[in-house]
Amino acid sequence: MSSDEFPGWHGTTIIGVRKGGEVVIAGDGQVSLGQTVIKGTAKKVRRLSPGGYDVVAGFAGSTADAFTLLERLEAKLEATPGQLARASVELAKDWRTDKYLQKLEAMLIVTDGKDLFVITGAGDVLEPEHDVTAIGSGGNFALAAARALMDSDQNAEDIARKAMAIASDICVYTNGCLTVETIKA
Q1: Which residues are catalytic?
Q2: What share of the chain in percent tops pLDDT 90?
Q3: How far apart are CA 89 and CA 8, in angstroms?
Q4: pTM of the entire structure?
C-alpha cells in the first residue's frame, strides 16, 4: 500500500477546561484507522509528577510520538521543577529545531492547575483566551460546546464531560469512553 493510499490514523478529542479554581483535562478513548475503530479505550490523558509537582497532560496524534513528547516534557520539568511555562517553551523550542522531533505528529494540552497550555510542533505554546482549549479530531466541536457552557453554573469537570459528549455525538472519530483528570490551582 503506497503512502497516498494509506487511510491515516484519526481519533481523539482532548479538552482542557479551567473554572472555579480547578483545571480538568478530559480525553476520549477512540483510535481509528481510516473508517475502522481500532481501539475504543485508549488512555490519552496522564498525570505526571516530575520533581514532586503534579502536571496533567492530554495528547492527540500519534501515540508513540506523544509518548516521546511526554518523556521530553517530564525531563524539562525535572530540570525546572514547578515551572510549567518554562518547561513548555523549552519543549516547543526543541520540537521546532530538532530534526528528529520535527517529524513527530502530536499535540499536547498540559496544566499544573495554574497554567493551561497547548503545545504544538510548530513551536507554539498557546494559552487559551477563554479558559477552554481542545485538540484532536473532534476538538473544535468540544471547544465550541465548552465555550457555550462556561457561563453556566456547571463546574469544570461537568463542562468538560458535557462538551466531550457533544463532540462524540458529532465527530465519528470521537467516542464517549473518557479519561478525566482534575488538578486544583
Answers
A1: 12
A2: 70
A3: 29
A4: 0.91
